[in-house]
Amino acid sequence: MKKVYSRPRSLKETHFHYCPGCGHAIVNRLLAEVVDEMDLRDTAICVAPAGCGMLVYNYFDIDTLESAHGRGAAVATGIKRVRPENLVFSYQGDGDLAAIGTAESFHAANRGELITVIFVNNGVYGMTGGQMAPTTVIDQVTTTTPGGRASDQAGHPVRMCEVLAVLDGTSYLERVAVNKPAAIVAAKKAIIKAFQHQLNRTGFSMVEVLSPCPTNWKMGPIEACKWIDDVMTKHFPLGVVKEVKC
Amino acid sequence: MKGYIEIDQERCKGCSFCIEYCPKNAIALSNKLNLKGYFVVDFQADKDCNGCAVCALMCPEVAIEVYRGGSN
Description:
Structural class of chain A: alpha/beta
Distance between the termini of chain B: 11 Å
CATH architecture of chain A: 3-Layer(aba) Sandwich
Helix content of chain A: 25-40%
CATH topology of chain B: Alpha-Beta Plaits
Distance between the termini of chain A: 40 Å
Helix content of chain B: 10-25%
Oligomer: heterodimer
Order of helices and strands of chain A: EHEEHEHHEEEHHEHEHHE
Number of domains of chain A: 1
Largest sheet of chain A: 7 strands, mixed
Largest sheet of chain B: 2 strands, antiparallel
Structural class of chain B: alpha+beta
Number of strands of chain B: 4
CATH architecture of chain B: 2-Layer Sandwich
Number of helices of chain A: 9
CATH topology of chain A: Rossmann fold
Shape of chain A: globular
Number of helices of chain B: 2
CATH class of chain A: Alpha Beta
CATH class of chain B: Alpha Beta
């Protein structure tokens, strides 16, 4: 029999540290597959975040640089400007990109930096124990919103794709999910497209990935995937938010 | 048998995504513990796996290798 699926080459043999059912691991694998398929192993540079995804340099077998918390887009800007021939992408969570790093992300997008941001949105601060994030949906229970997020006290969930879509520097913004097989296939296509936008030098590209966090959502892994469909996508509609001609 | 899978049980964390999405119900949770302390999943060889690879697509731990094709 023929082997039809095995571990991508760009993913090291290291075991993931993520919790059971965590979407980060799926996104890590998709990125490694895309890097392999687009033959970017020698040229891709990843910028790692602070947060649950901070150990991606242990998993990717490509050059990876750790950034200060939230400064992924700024660090990626620096790398891309000195090494324009390389594909540079930052891997960031919602606390990293949409809270502490809002300024860096926003202005990198506004400058139209030729980088790709992979934004893993799970609606909570995962690594620190499940506190409310800017992307926590209304009525979602977290450790800092035990009665559910109330908009009069804690504001509304931030839709980063839509926020960045109004900027002229952005060229490709799509929101995908990794909660079921069809969604994972779509997520991979979105990552490929975002990388193509960078390689064609059309502008800033970002893929927002709705990702299950069963541990901090206090759900089973299957239930967490269902919750993305039932609740999260109502606040964060899936699909291409902006695409300019590539 | 049209296909089969190999599960690296030391990687498995028992999230059961593969069980949920397997169209042939060819994967089941076992009562085996791995070194990490998770109950791991087992392949059911008698359940007519066709090597569709949906389990591998869903597996967050990249613990599944899929084989498909003739009977060699």
